[in-house]
Records
---
Amino acid sequence: MRIVVRNSPGHHLETLTSHEGTALRAWYGNAASREDEAVALAVIRRAKVMDGWIACDCVTEPFQPLLAPIRQERTFTLRRLKSKRLDDHHDEWRPNHASSCPFHIDKDSSPALIDHQFHIRPMPKSDRRHVDPLPAIPDRLANLSERGLPRSAERNDRPSRLGTILWRVLDKAQINIIPPLQDRPEFSLKNQISRFRTAAKHFRVLRTWTFNALISTWAADYWDADSRWQGLLSASRKDWPPAVRRTGFMLLYATSVSAQSIMPASSARVLDVMGKVRQPLRGDPAHRGPYLVLLNADFEDDDNGPARAIQAYAQPVYNSETLFPIESGFERQVSHLLFWLQDALFEMLPDLRIRIVKPLFALEARNGLCRPDFVIEATYRDNPCTTLIIEAMGMETEEYQAAKAKTLPRMEQIGPVFLLTPSDLAKDQAVTSARRLLAWVIEHIRHPTAIS
């Protein structure tokens, strides 16, 4: 076996000893001794540090099967790199392992990782004030005895763990709310970031360190070891327990992101992420941005290296002034319509206060939880508040429509629901749809619907 350059397996980095190769196969075949596991762990960690792949010598063809070292949250493992179709004999770059090799891929024993169903699973709001840092560097191999069990590949609208942290602070800062125009709100990136920082003071990473103290909003700090952010992280070193890594956070406004990189607006440099840059699954990725990105970073395996971005969550936002969270390009169009609605009603009825909310967490209805896309809270003078629901039906798949059909009745227990589809906001229908929405809102304010 050899360690080769990632994405360029023709370039050799290191040859493994026969003992190392045997240890890797023994571990993957669930027949390893403790000594074998220690040797296999050392090889996988070494390949990861070298940013390489492992070429298996079970096949003597010019192109050998490849294994990618993967560092999970708590363990190290290997991923077998294969062609998308196991019966594709034309893909010589990634051949299958020999049938006698423990790494051989049996197409019947490797369940699909992609489930085309989309599940709506609104997440209840939590009062938790702790922010999870990164766990300690993995020091063991993954347990492969359960790899044959079915894996959940559900696609749903819940964010990652890092995304949940971002949502909790956005909700605390009320950045997901557009207040009534009577309050004369002033939006700017500086003001919204300041609001986020104020809210972040209420969350703690450690008992003695708030989330705000360990977060930077300036991309250049990532590369500057002398920055105030990295200085505070150095000062915090003694307070970190052994079970977690010294973790820094960055909140960046980004014009675009990719699977493993961020293009922050405050820097000309691209910020590469070791893991994935996760984001909502709705709509066309090409039209989701710009983004508000939260990432976490450590300082290499020995805790003495330069900052290293580990994970990130990219939350699409309406624009840089409001940082109003959305989940797709279509929701940006709907937001634009709602902002127009707010302005139009302010001109027509100066005493009518309209507040626009983008719920990040579930609302409780009589028959269960739901998370509307948008909520309008309308209050006319001293009259009770009228709650109206706006649903952006941006996906047209049967699975998505079926998922929405389960939650729409719950939303109707909160307030009347107005549905918008992409065709409603097409150029030839946009004006008509805007007038229809305006009339619907005025009608429900004049004659509120009793919610049982």
Note: The two ends are 69 Å apart (CA to CA).
---
Amino acid sequence: MSPKYRPHPDPAGILAGNRQRALEREGIPMYLALEDLTGSPVPPVGDAAVLAEGAELDGLLGHYAERLAPGAADDDLAELASVITVLARAHFDEKEDRA
């Protein structure tokens, strides 16, 4: 696992810090993922590095969800938003210390 994607030791602390920030003005650093809702076939990803990074991000999302919202339903968008902001601050924001 790359140091960039090593789980942060205090996700609850990051979440508390996020709640003290003006994220609507500061923004939240993150990747943009597009979803095709047309039903058209999506070409497979052939780049091993992209697939590996996606797997690491998926693992981190699950890790933080288990710690921050263990009983949340899969469609609980408020809890998902909290988990995503922790992931973003811990791993995409260059100003944050990484674990």
Note: The chain has four helices and no strands.
